[in-house]
Specification:
The chain is of the alpha/beta class. The chain has 10 helices and 12 strands. The protein has 2 domains: 2-60, Ribosomal Protein L15, Chain: K, domain 2; 85-329, Four Helix Bundle (Hemerythrin (Met), subunit A) (Up-down Bundle), CATH 1.20.120. A 4-stranded mixed sheet has the order 1-5-7-8, covered by helices on one side. Strands 4-3-2-6 form a 4-stranded mixed sheet. Strands 9-10 form a two-stranded antiparallel sheet. Mean pLDDT is 87; it is low at 293-300.
């Protein structure tokens, strides 16, 4: 269950394990913390400190989104779990340049394979030449990744796939969406607004699963450690970006350009009327996330499962791969 606070004039309290949302003295919303999966906050509601403590103890992440442009979003969640074996293995692999590069390749292969699913959704509506070019780049990318061994080479191959993907979107979407490519901070068109918000929410789920599974979100293989950047969370997000892209493309079919507003400082954003539509559909989608198509043979075989469940599955494979690589090195 998602709880979204979308007004500045709200007061949020907790009583006996129940989050309560008030406007003045009127109770607008309530939810037991054990039923909550995420709290999303817009603007500047008054949230009592006991609420943050309750959420942290219950392991419920909070995403605080910027009300104005120029502000970064904040992810609040519990600290590192007490499980040590996964983190020790993670640190050993991250600090070994050879193993880290092999795991960076592992991430990127899964990322490029996952684009088959949104491609099949889009190919029915696009120019065949552009679609064929992207399909060719996509099919060649895994083999290319296995032939190189430098991080710069990995990123060059991944960058080509991303450029062709967004070029395909640019050639396919109707002109009224004004999409010409990926942009952010701030996003300048409706699709980029949906992508940025979707990536942020998916990242919050991924970070929560990483911590509960014993990983340190800060040490990655593809993304390098940097202050205030959780590199492993961003690594895992790469595998699920195509799922966010598919969600955004589907949602555009339900919205019109009037569902968005644009300001120079804030960029393009969903308006207050459209935001509930986004969160309603996101709550459904994250519980029925399409499985990356690299695991199946064709579109008729794809299945869905909750996002967090799929993240746990990828982390299980990651832990196994780390162990195998470390054993070989030893």
């Amino acid at each position: 269950m998602l709880m979204v606070l979308d007004r500045s004039e709200l007061t949020v309290r907790v009583n006996a394990g129940v989050i309560q949302v008030y406007k003045d003295d009127a109770l607008l919303q309530r939810a037991a913390t054990h039923l909550l999966e995420m709290l999303v906050v817009y603007g500047n509601p008054l949230v009592e400190s006991s609420v943050w403590r309750e959420l942290a103890q219950a392991g419920v992440p909070a995403v605080i989104l910027a009300a104005r442009g120029g502000q970064a979003c904040a992810l609040l969640a519990e600290g590192l779990a007490t499980q040590l074996p996964a983190r020790r293995l993670q640190y050993a692999c991250a600090e070994d340049g050879t193993l880290a590069r092999q795991l960076a390749r592992w991430v990127l292969v899964r990322k490029v394979l996952s684009y088959r699913l949104p491609y099949l959704f889009l190919v029915k509506h696009c120019d065949s030449d552009v679609a064929n070019r992207f399909r060719q780049v996509l099919e060649q990318a895994p083999a290319k990744l296995h032939k190189v061994d430098a991080l710069d080479s990995f990123m060059g191959i991944e960058g080509q796939v991303s450029r062709e993907w967004f070029q395909l979107l640019s050639n396919t979407l109707p002109e009224h969406w004004k999409f010409t490519g990926r942009n952010r901070q701030p996003p300048r068109d409706p699709l980029n607004a949906l992508l940025s918000l979707g990536y942020t929410l998916a990242l919050a789920d991924i970070r929560q699963v990483l911590v509960t599974e014993g990983f340190d979100p800060a040490f990655g293989f593809l993304h390098q450690p940097f202050p205030a950047r959780e590199a492993l969370a961003l690594d895992v997000l790469e595998i699920f970006r195509s799922g966010v892209d598919l969600f955004a493309l589907n949602l555009l079919g339900e919205l019109t350009p009037e569902a968005f507003y644009y300001r120079a400082e804030e960029g393009c954003r969903l308006n207050k009327t459209a935001r509930p539509v986004f969160y309603r559909e996101w709550a459904i989608y994250r519980d029925n996330w399409p499985r990356p198509l690299g695991e199946v043979e064709n579109s008729r075989d794809f299945a869905t499962a909750p996002l967090r469940e799929q993240v746990r599955g990828q982390l299980k494979q990651l832990r196994q791969t780390m162990g195998e690589l470390k054993d070989v090195e030893s």
